[in-house]
Write a structure and sequence with these properties.
Active site: 11, 142
EC number: 2.7.1.148
Keywords: ATP-binding, Isoprene biosynthesis, Kinase, Nucleotide-binding, Transferase
Binding site for ATP: 100-110
Radius of gyration: 19 Å
Helix content: 25-40%
Number of helices: 9
Catalytic activity: 4-CDP-2-C-methyl-D-erythritol + ATP = 4-CDP-2-C-methyl-D-erythritol 2-phosphate + ADP + H(+)
Length: 290
């Protein structure tokens, strides 16, 4: 078994509609999701005993104890693999944390999903898809979509996934590195039964226009809670973005640009204006319909 690497791609909510709330408190969502070419990096290799190392720009902000989603993913996958009669030997895992912590782009969920993918490859094991999906969902509502890491429409609490024929998009991600409490953002929602997405109604329009007609229902309460989000969106607008929006519950925001060069130039300008921010030009993956 040789060293295995997996990219935990940044998850970008191009739109997020809050459509209801279950009795157990989980919110029902309609979300249009894509994944960036940039993200965290996980490296897996055989070892005499389990080991976990954190590196990268944001690695020092994370804990390497058992609460880390990477370790939870390893342990739950190992349990399922061994229960199926297959082998899941000791492994050394290194997480290079390139994405800001708790920033609305699925960092922890993407890390957990990449751990599942990487260890399946390292251990050379197979599990029935329902079993793998159950493990993913047990780690968090966003983990199943991050496991797929392709453009999707996600419904329910995030477990009902549908592929979508989204083109590759050129983006700049920007985060002022201000903490945002996801529970507090949801608590401040004025309405929890908002209209769902209706992509069929805009099927003849270019994708940028279709996305513009959607929304992120978490953006208004997040902006009220964290004024830096409004500043971030305005800063992206000033670099020539064709569309700006907050991703997930924040504080990462994104701007869409006409091409790779425009995104790269916008990131350069924004990095110079806001040297203390996380700024990344990236390209979202294209997807095909199911």
């Amino acid at each position: 078994m040789a060293e295995i690497t997996e990219t935990a791609r940044a998850k970008i909510n191009l739109a997020l509609h809050v459509t209801g709330r279950r009795d157990d408190g989980y919110h029902l969502l309609d979300s249009l999701v894509t994944f960036a070419s940039h993200g965290d990096l996980l490296t897996f290799e055989p070892a005499d005993e389990d080991d976990f190392t954190l590196t990268g720009p944001y690695g020092a902000l994370l804990s390497a104890d058992t609460d880390n989603l990477v370790l939870k993913a390893r342990n739950r996958l190992r349990q399922a693999v061994e229960a199926s009669g297959q082998s899941a030997p000791a492994v050394s895992i290194e997480l290079t944390k390139n994405l800001p912590i708790a920033s609305g782009i699925g960092g922890g969920s993407a890390d957990a999903a990449a751990t599942l993918r990487g260890l399946m490859r390292l251990w050379q094991v197979m599990l029935p898809d329902p079993v793998l999906q159950e493990i993913a969902l047990s780690l968090g509502a966003d983990v199943p979509m991050c496991l797929a890491s392709r453009p999707l429409i996600a419904k329910g609490i995030g477990e009902h996934l549908q592929s979508v024929a989204l083109p590759s998009l050129f983006l700049v991600l920007a985060n002022p590195l201000v903490a945002v409490s996801t529970p507090e953002v949801f608590r401040r929602l004025e309405k929890r039964d908002n209209p769902p997405m209706d992509l069929d109604a805009t099927a003849t329009l270019p994708w940028t226009e279709r996305i513009a007609r959607l929304r992120n229902d978490l953006e208004p309460p997040a902006r009220a809670l964290t004024p830096a989000i409004a500043e971030t969106l305005q800063a992206l607008e000033q670099t020539g973005a064709t569309l700006t929006r907050m991703s997930g519950s924040g504080a990462t925001c994104f701007g869409l640009y006409v091409d790779r060069n425009a995104a790269a130039e916008a990131a350069k300008i924004l990095s110079e204006r806001k040297p203390g921010w996380y700024v990344q030009a990236t390209q979202a993956l294209a997807g095909g319909s199911a």
